[in-house]
Amino acid sequence: MTFQTGAEMDLYEHQARELFEEHGILVPRAEVTDSPGQAREIARRLGGRVVVKAQVKAGGRGKAGGVRLAADPAAAELTARQILGMDIKGHTVGTVMLAQPVDIETEFYASYVLDRAAGRFLAIASAEGGMEIEEVAASRPEAVARVHIDPAEGVTSAKAAEIAEAAGLPPQTVDVLVRLWEVLVREDAVLVEVNPLVRTRQGQILALDGKVTLDDNARFRQTRWGDGDAAHDDPLEAAAAAKGLNYVRLHGEVGIIGNGAGLVMSTLDVVAGCGARPADFLDIGGGASAQIMADGLSVILSDPAVKSVLVNVFGGITACDAVADGIVQALEQVQLTKPLVVRLDGNNAVRGRAILDERAHPLVQQATTMDGAARRAAQLATTA
Ligand code: GDP
Ligand code: MN
C-alpha cells in the first residue's frame, strides 16, 4: 500500500475528457452546466438523447445514481435537476456533464499510475472494464495486467502493444494507450485512468470516463485548472488546511497526532502493524501549541470513522510538559468523545506525564512506549 502524502489535485471528468480530446483520444461529444434549463438546451444540441453525469471527484457515480440516460431534452432537464445537489460520497454535485450516448460493445480498463514503491509508473489494464478495478483485481487478479514503464523510454507503440496483449485488449487500443501516456507526461499527472475505455458497436475506441490526478509539485507550470479546490477535495482536509494544520486524511479508525513527519510516518506503520488502520497523518510540528493540539483534535474527532486517537510526541524543542499543557488546554476547548492514548517521551517526559495524570480525564490514558501506545489505540479502535 502506498500512502499519498503529497498534495495532489484530481480533475473533474469533464476536464479529463478535455485533455483526452486534445491529445487525440476519441471521447463522446459533451457539455457541462449547473443549470437544468441549460441542460435541456444542451441535450437538444447533442441530438436529444443524452447521458447526464454528475461531476464530482469520486468514483462509482453510476452506482450512486449520478449517471443516467435521458431520452429527450425534457427528460435531460428533469434528470439534471435530480442530479444537481445530490450527495455522492460526501461530495455535493454542483455541475453535470451531458454527453452523447455511446453504443457500447465492450468495456475495458486502462490506467497509468505512479508506483511510489517501485519509483516507476505502472500500466494497469484489463479487458474487464466498467466496474471498479479493485473489485476485478480482488475477484479475478489474472484479468488485470500490470506492466512497469521504463521512465527513459515511456510508452512507445511497442510498449503499448505489450500492455494491450498482456491485458487482452484489442490491437486498436494501442494508439489510445500511447496517447494516454502523452497526457500523463504533458500534463504532469501522477495518474490517468480510463474506465470504461469502450469499443462501440461501430468499432471505435472511446474514452467514456476519465480520471486525471495532477502532481502538485508541477503546479507552477500547470496553471490551467487554477488552484480550484486543489488538494482539499476532502472536507476534513479543507477544514484542517483552513486552520493551518499539516493533515492528510487516510480514512482508517485510529486518529494520529505526532510531532515531526518522520515520527508520524513511523506511528502510521506501527499502528498498521497492530492490525488497525490509521485515520490520518497529522504533524503538529516542533512548536506544538495548545491551539494546534485543540485544532488537530477537533478535526480528527469530527471524522466519523475515528474510534480512538493516539498522540505520539517525542519532546525536543517543545518539551513534553508543554505538550501536556497543550493537551489539557485542548480538553477545555474540545469535547473529547473518543478514547485518547498519549505517549510522551524525550524532554521533560516525566513532568508531562504527571500533568496528564493530574488532569485525570476519564477518556485519556497514557503509555510509555510507542509500541504500547499503538497497541492500546489499535485495541480501543477495533473493539469499539
Ligand atoms: P462512474 O460510475 O463514476 O465510474 O461513471 P462512468 O462514467 O464510468 O459511468 C458508469 C457506467 O455507465 C459505465 O461503466 C457505462 O457502463 C455506463 N455508461 C456511461 N456512459 C454511457 C453511454 O454513453 N452509453 C452507455 N450504454 N452506457 C454508458
Ligand atoms: Mn467509470
What does the model show?
- This protein is of the alpha+beta class and 384 residues long.
- The chain has three domains: 19-24 and 103-224, ATP-grasp fold, B domain (D-amino Acid Aminotransferase, Chain A, domain 1); 29-99, 2-Layer Sandwich (Dna Ligase, domain 1); 235-382, Rossmann fold, CATH 3.40.50.261.
- Helices cover 35% and strands 27% of the residues.
- It has twelve helices and 19 strands.
- Strands 1, 8, 9, 10, 11, 12 and 13 form a seven-stranded antiparallel beta sheet that branches. A four-stranded antiparallel beta sheet has the order 2-7-3-4, covered by helices on one side.
- Strand 5 and strand 6 form a beta hairpin.
- The longest helix is centred in the last third of the chain and has 14 residues, at 320-333.
- Residues 1-5 have low confidence and may be disordered.
Secondary structure elements and pairings:
Elements: E1 8-10, H1 13-22, E2 30-33, H2 36-45, E3 50-54, E4 67-70, H3 73-83, E5 87-88, E6 91-92, E7 96-99, E8 104-115, E9 120-126, H4 133-139, E10 144-149, H5 157-167, H6 174-186, E11 189-200, E12 205-207, E13 210-215, H7 235-242, E14 246-249, E15 254-258, H8 261-273, E16 280-283, H9 290-301, E17 308-315, H10 320-333, E18 340-346, H11 349-359, E19 364-367, H12 370-383
Parallel strand pairs: 15-17, 17-18, 18-19
Antiparallel strand pairs: 1-13, 2-7, 3-4, 3-7, 5-6, 8-9, 8-11, 9-10, 11-12, 11-13, 14-16
The chain binds guanosine-5'-diphosphate (GDP) and manganese (II) ion.
